[in-house]
Design goal:
Layout: E1 2-6, H1 15-18, E2 22-23, H2 26-31, H3 33-38, E3 48-51, E4 54-55, E5 62-73, H4 80-91, E6 98-102, E7 106-117, H5 121-125, H6 127-143, E8 149-150, E9 160-162
Helix pairs in contact: 4-6
C-alpha cells in the first residue's frame, strides 16, 4: 500500500499516517488526488507526501515498487510542456504512458515498470545506472535548449514525493 504522510518540523507527529490513508497503487492515489486532498482541511495542506514504494503496515516499510520516478528540478515554467517530450524521447518511453506531475519547481515523471522492484537493496546496487540515466536526461535538456536538472538523490527505497496540490513549508 502507498501511504500518505505529513512531515511537520521534525515533530514526529504524523496525523495523516495515523489516519491510515493507504492506496493500492500510485494510479489510485494520484488518479484522483483532489478527492484525497478534499479530506484534508485547506489550512493543513502543507508538507504532505506519499510513498513511491508500496509499504507494509509500518511507516515507510518497503515491500515493493512498481514505478520509477525522475525528478527534474529548475524547469522554467513556460517551457515545462517542451520538457516532457524531450525527457520521454531521451528515456525511450511514450508520453501517453507516463505520469507527469508539475512539482512547482519542475516536473516528476512517473514510469510504470514491467517488473516490480522487490528488494530495497536494488536501489543501492543500481544507483550508478540511475545516475547515468539522469546524466542522459540532463544532456538531452541542454541539447534542446531547456533548463532543468535531474535529481539523482530520489533513487532510494524510502522515497517520499510531495502530494500534488499541497504546499512546501520550510518552517
Amino acid at each position: 500500500m502507498h501511504q500518505i504522510l505529513s512531515l511537520r518540523n521534525g515533530s514526529g507527529d504524523n496525523q495523516h499516517f495515523k489516519c491510515g490513508w493507504q492506496f493500492k497503487s500510485i494510479i489510485e492515489l494520484l488518479g484522483d488526488h483532489e478527492a484525497v486532498l478534499y479530506q484534508i482541511p485547506k489550512e493543513d495542506r502543507w508538507n504532505i507526501f506519499y510513498t513511491v514504494a508500496s509499504c507494509g503496515t509500518g511507516k515507510r516499510e518497503f515491500q515493493s515498487q512498481s514505478v520509477i520516478v525522475f525528478d527534474i528540478d529548475h524547469v522554467e515554467h513556460e517551457k515545462k510542456t517542451s520538457c516532457i517530450p524531450t525527457v520521454c524521447a531521451c528515456l525511450g518511453i511514450q508520453e501517453n504512458a507516463t505520469g507527469v506531475i508539475d512539482s512547482g519547481n519542475g516536473l516528476h515523471f512517473i514510469i510504470a515498470l514491467k517488473t516490480s522492484i522487490t528488494e530495497a537493496a536494488f536501489f543501492r546496487k543500481n544507483k550508478r545506472h540511475y545516475v547515468a540515466l539522469c546524466e542522459k536526461i540532463n544532456a538531452a535538456l541542454i541539447s534542446a535548449g531547456l533548463s532543468g536538472k535531474a535529481d539523482t538523490a530520489i533513487f532510494d527505497s524510502s522515497r517520499l514525493m510531495r502530494m500534488p496540490g499541497t504546499v512546501n513549508k520550510k518552517k
